[in-house]
Amino acid sequence: MNQHSPHAGTAVAAPADTSTTVPDTAHFPATLVGTLALLAAVAPLAIDMYLPAFPGMAAEFGTNASAVQLTLTTFLVGLALGQLAFGPLSDRYGRRPLLLVGTLVCAVFSAASALAPGIELLAASRFLQGFAGAAGIVLGRAVISDRAHGPAAARLFGLLVVVNAVAPVVAPLIGGTIVTNVGWRAVFWVLTALSLLMFACVAALVPETHPVERRSTGGIAAMMRDARGILRNRRYVGFTLAYAFAFGVMFAYISASPFVLQNVHGLSTGWYTVAFTANAIGLVLFSVVNGAVAGRLGERATLRIGLALLAVFSVVMLMNALAGPALWVTLIALWFTMGSLGLVIANATTLALGEAHRAAGTGSAVLGALQFLLAAAISPLVGIGGEDTALPMAIAMVLSAVIALGALTLTGSRAAE
Q1: CATH fold of 25-416, please?
Q2: Cβ contacts of residue 333 below 8 Å, gap of 6+?
Q3: Both ends of the chain: CA-CA distance in Å?
Q4: Given this model, what pLDDT does residue 243 score?
């Protein structure tokens, strides 16, 4: 898809070249696709499964809610930094060995979290769990980018979007059942088992997709050269910013929607769960539609449509918050806002990594790190106005959506595709 540089250590910044043979999904048997989906699920599961345990953890450790929430922040920071480490290293050493190391170390620190005697050690273990678990996320994307491009890649990335939409809905339900019946530490033992399962699946089912002849050479200097080459590519930066700030809309929603729908609109916990699930279904439906639309219109045009819808319905959320808000407007606007992400995430990922194909690990690392660093920043900001207003969430959604749409100006005209 991209023109290959003769220098192994230099990232490619050239536009896509459609003259080369484009791999398709035949390169991805169901077992490999299932393994990549499992790798993608580690973050939402590790984030959301233990949320129902927060009150019990605070009581057991004799601490406050902020200290317990710090264990989530350290995990997100570890997840971001781990991607920046594993991605570039995989461009030099290959995807498979680092996947094996990452999943195994993630299992070790998941077990350490289960055994943590105090909140400080739990926070440290969560950071290292996130750092190691980042390998599955960043390298799963790189494996897809190594073997598929264009509509085929968009379909596979769309599958990961579906996983990331369903897992946050299922994870608290599973976690709540475990916490109620066994205790919060059992959640981390389940995550330990899942990490070991990922290790076994990678060992048995994931081949090396980044051959030696395409790897960067020259050590740290070459990796830094790769990173500089990618970050100087305006098209990569534009698609990456569109991806990350579109995710910013989602994180604003995830962080604030419990308070907006329950405190502001008065929904019960049960009805909030129904609304959250309905929005996740909307994301899944749009992701399914995305495969057909992107195949017909192209990834860039579909991405632009998705970002435009994201901005429009975020503005509707803001106007509604300023005017009232009305429950039915909030529910409709949130459904279409989350749904439109199904037209954004897979296409932005495909286009961004297509600009860094030879150094897909580094490209995937920057993409994912920015995503989770924004999550760590946006989550507390939407609570600034208190628990009884929808305005901070709406403002964060609009700003993120507008920045995401504006980032496309960095990618040039469609004719440059």
Answers
A1: Growth Hormone; Chain: A; (1.20.1250)
A2: 313, 314, 316, 317, 320
A3: 11
A4: 92
